[in-house]
Amino acid sequence: MIVPGTLGVPRHPDHGRSRPPISDLTQGFAEELYYGDDRAAAEYAYVLAVRFQELGATNDARRYARECLRLAEVLPTRSLDDVASARMMIGGIPMPERFHHGVVRSRLADLLARSDAA
Questions:
Q1: What is the end-to-end Cα distance of the chain in Å, rounded?
Q2: What is the pLDDT along the chain (118 residues), one digit of tens a residue?
Q3: N or C: which end of the chain has fewer CB within 10 A?
Q4: Distance CA 113, CA 65 (A)
Q5: 90, β-bridge pairs
Q6: What is the per-residue pLDDT for 115?
Q7: How far lies 34's CA from each of 40, 79, 87, in Å?
Q8: Helix or strand or coil: residue 63?
Q9: What is the sign of the dihedral through the CA atoms of 64, 69, 17 and 13?
């Protein structure tokens, strides 16, 4: 079942939480990159960084954290409308209320710091 506002990611029951497989999220990320939707791609990258970190796949988490930051840095940030998150949750991960490069740097700081040191 596709739930409106989830970027086409199927919702799978998980005791009240939506946790689609990582493969669905990586496919969504690739599709958004292909279609040039930098915001949606950045959001997917954020979710993938968090999910991979939860799974202990640190190298993958770092990769998606870097991608998220790279994409977030080119997003417009002139107004609150530019940075307000349209979705509260993607792939079972709560999204920040405001989504911009500063929030990405803050929320993914551990992954970004580790990737800078590597």
A1: 40
A2: 444 444 444 443 444 456 899 999 999 999 999 999 999 999 999 999 999 999 999 999 999 999 999 999 999 999 999 999 999 999 999 999 999 999 999 999 999 995 555 5
A3: N
A4: 10
A5: 93
A6: 52
A7: 11, 26, 21
A8: helix
A9: negative
Q: The tokens of 29 are what?
A: 């990320």
Residues belonging to the chain:
118
The tokens describing 65, both together, are: 């954290």
CB-CB neighbours of 118 under 10 Å: 8
Dihedral of the alpha carbons of 22, 24, 28, 30, in degrees to the nearest 10: 70
What is the model's pTM? 0.82
Other Cβ atoms closer than 10 A to 85:
17
The single residue listed with the structure tokens 């939480």 is 17
The Cα 28–Cα 61 span in angstroms is 16
What six digits make up the tokens of 34? 């292909």
Residue 30: count of CB within 10 angstroms of its CB: 12
